[in-house]
Amino acid sequence: MTEQKIELKMIRMSEVQSQEIEWLWYPFIPYGKLTIIQGDPGDGKTTMVLNLAAKLSKGEALDENMKVTEPVNVIYQTAEDGLADTVKPRLELAGADCERIIVIDESDKSLSMVDERLEEAIVRTGARLLILDPIQAYLGGGMDMNRANEARDMTKKLGALAEKTKCAIILIGHMNKASGNKAAYRGMGSIDFFAVARSVLLVGRVEGEPNTRAVVQIKNNLAAFGHPKAFALSEEGFQWIGDYEITVDEVLGGIAPKANKMELAKQMLRELAETHSAVLSNEIFDRADELEFI
C-alpha cells in the first residue's frame, strides 16, 4: 500500500508575529501551555489545585504573583474522586463559586487528552483553566504512557489545544517510587510528558513539619524559576503560606530544610542564653548534635 504524499508547507519567521507569554500565575502556570503538577499520592496536589480553582472562580488570587482581575471559569476533570461526596464538599470548603467550576459529563464515553469535547467545552464556557486529574486516566484506551512516541504525540496535541484556545492546562501526575532519581524521572510514564510541559511543579511533604506541603518548580522553559512556595493542611482546612525556603532535593529526599534547622538552632541558643550565664562551646556542639542540627 502506497503512503499518501504529504504536501510540503513552510513558514518564514518573518511572517510570524511575536507574542508575549501570558501568565495565570507567574512564573508557574502560563496561559496557552501545559503545566504538570506532580507528587506522591496524598501529598495535597489535588487539594492545592481545587483551592486554586476556588479562588479563580471568585476572581481572587491564591498568591501575590497571580494577577486575577475577574472571575474565571474552570473545567475540572477527575477520575479518582466522586463529584458529590468529595469534589463538591472540597470546593464548598474552599468557598468556590461552583457555578464557574464545570465538569464534562463522561457517563456516555470517557475522555482522553485528544477528545474533541475538550476544545468544545473550553470554547463554549470560555474557560481559562482546564485540569485533568490524574494524567494516566486521560490517555485513552489504546495508549501506553511509557512509550515515548505515543506520550509525546498525545501531549503535543493537548499543547496545541492550549495554544489555540489560550487556556492554561494542568495535568496532575503521581510520582513513581524510583528513589534517588532526578525529579524529572520520578513522574509516572514516559519522560516525554515532562519534556512537552513548559512548567512542572513538585508538591511534597516537608520533613519535620507534618502539616506543611512544599511547592517547588522543577522545570520552566518560559521564565526564571519561581521561588518555592508552601501551604498547610490541617483540621481547619487549606491555608496558603506563600514563599518558603526549601530545595527540590530536600523535598524528594525527606530532608529537613536548612532554613528550618537555622531557626531551631537560633531558638536553642536563645534558650541556652536565658538559662546559663556562660556555656562552653563544646556543650553547644553537643546540644546541637543531640537535636541533629549538625
From TrEMBL:
It comes from the Bacteria. Signal peptide: none annotated. Pfam families: AAA_25 (PF13481). InterPro entries: AAA+_ATPase (IPR003593), P-loop_NTPase (IPR027417). Residues 31-207 form the AAA+ ATPase domain. One of its GO terms (biological process) is recombinational repair. PANTHER family: DNA REPAIR PROTEIN RADA, DNA REPAIR PROTEIN RADA-LIKE PROTEIN. This is AAA+ ATPase domain-containing protein. It comes from Agathobacter rectalis.
